[in-house]
């Protein structure tokens, strides 16, 4: 934490904020609270300006080239799974997907649009590398290949790609934010919408949720959502297996079997 003490001085009380990289910290002094992160994407400034993440207070570059960002540390809470049906979630996701500013910034950062064929090719290579030839995985890959011609979408937007309820922050002022943008991509909005609906919303409520978002459920959207959720399920199964997390691997493998059952039913 030396880089932080060097930057802020000893009068700030510092504590790790968790996260995969260990590069995020909370800092507080005399009632002022900040969330600090090392080497956040330049994308953060646009997200802050759009009101999608808590306000960016300052950005500073260290002598070694590292960039430190400080955001308001808000009192609030993460959303719970049953909060995800709220209109505020649908409205914020619509705002993100329709933001020209976010899209322009990701393009300037060199992000290329993610296509279904790129996803499938990457999955096949990973399955081969990991030698993970479970029957359900092979069946899912076959489905993805067979349906590839039907899921391409001309509209490519900024997708968060991890709309887990833990990444939604509701402030004590009732302002909703979507945080943790390290995996953001330019892609079909069905990636985010599909994950959110399949994981959190009863199917009988999909029409209502999509109406709030601003879309009508039709066969084409349904096919795209299913395709991406199936691909993501294989990805998570592989990822947790590589991390030797048996519990999560088994849970995602079980979910993959449920998805395969839907294919068989159709």
Automatic annotation (TrEMBL):
<dbReference type="Pfam" id="PF01636">
    <property type="entry name" value="APH"/>
</dbReference>
<protein>
    <submittedName>
        <fullName>Phosphotransferase</fullName>
    </submittedName>
</protein>
<feature type="domain" description="Aminoglycoside phosphotransferase">
    <location>
        <begin position="17"/>
        <end position="223"/>
    </location>
</feature>
<dbReference type="GO" id="GO:0016740">
    <property type="term" value="F:transferase activity"/>
</dbReference>
<dbReference type="InterPro" id="IPR052077">
    <property type="entry name" value="CcrZ_PhaseVar_Mediator"/>
</dbReference>
<dbReference type="InterPro" id="IPR011009">
    <property type="entry name" value="Kinase-like_dom_sf"/>
</dbReference>
<dbReference type="InterPro" id="IPR002575">
    <property type="entry name" value="Aminoglycoside_PTrfase"/>
</dbReference>
